[in-house]
Amino acid sequence: IECSAMSHRYLGDGFDIHGGGLDLRFPHHENEMAQTRAAGYPSAARWMHSAWVTAKGEKMSKSKGNALKPADLCKVFGVDAYRYYFMSDVQFGADGSISMERMVQVYNADLANTWGNLCSRVFNMTKKYFDGKVPEVPADAAARVANPMLPIAEGLYAKYDTCLGQVDFTGAAAAVQELAGRVNLYVEESAPWNLAKKEETAG
């Protein structure tokens, strides 16, 4: 009953999400639902339970020495990269097998290569060719140049919003990553640095 009382005191009559591990689903959360509703409060709109997180498919334990501590991982990868890994590579609601090797792989592929290269290219070219200011888009740009990124960009919000509504963090991260990957590919295909060199030569 103490969980019901604390939830009502600190979160109000109702709140969006109540989470916990699978081992808390029954009887702990079943009892909490019944107690809260018996007291006349609606409780949480959605009850979520995470599945098991293992180390290379094995249960983590001190005796095996395979436990991965969040604080230690944050020291290696940083808090944001740590969060990104669990949102993108560990599907909520399904068992997840994690490892340092896989974390490094995701970090390098998604964050360092895709986002790191994209940001580096865009920022450096903006600084070099436009004095660090984002230039205005010509009014006839859409008619003159096909934009292969437009279909992905136009559908991104709806896809992202749908994924979050379904508590599908992995799908939401993948939707954003798809656009970043296509933008990166577009930069490689169009090679704007070559165009800049031609214009400098012509000038």
What can you tell me about this protein's structure?
There is one protein chain. The protein is mostly helical. The protein is 63% helix and 11% strand. It has nine helices and four strands, in the order αβαββααβααααα. A two-stranded parallel sheet has the order 1-2. Strands 3-4 form a two-stranded parallel sheet. α2 (25-38) links the parallel β1 (14-21) and β2. The longest helix has 31 residues, at 100-130. The radius of gyration is 24 Å and the shape is elongated. The relative contact order is 0.08.
Describe the structure concisely:
The longest helix is centred in the middle third of the chain and has 31 residues, at 100-130. Helices cover 63% and strands 11% of the residues.
Low-pLDDT stretches: none
Helix content: 55-70%
Molecular shape? elongated
Strand order of the largest sheet: 1-2
Q: Summarize the helix and strand pattern as letters.
A: HEHEEHHEHHHHH
Major sheet characteristics: 2 strands, parallel
The DSSP helix count reads 9
Distance between the termini: 78 Å
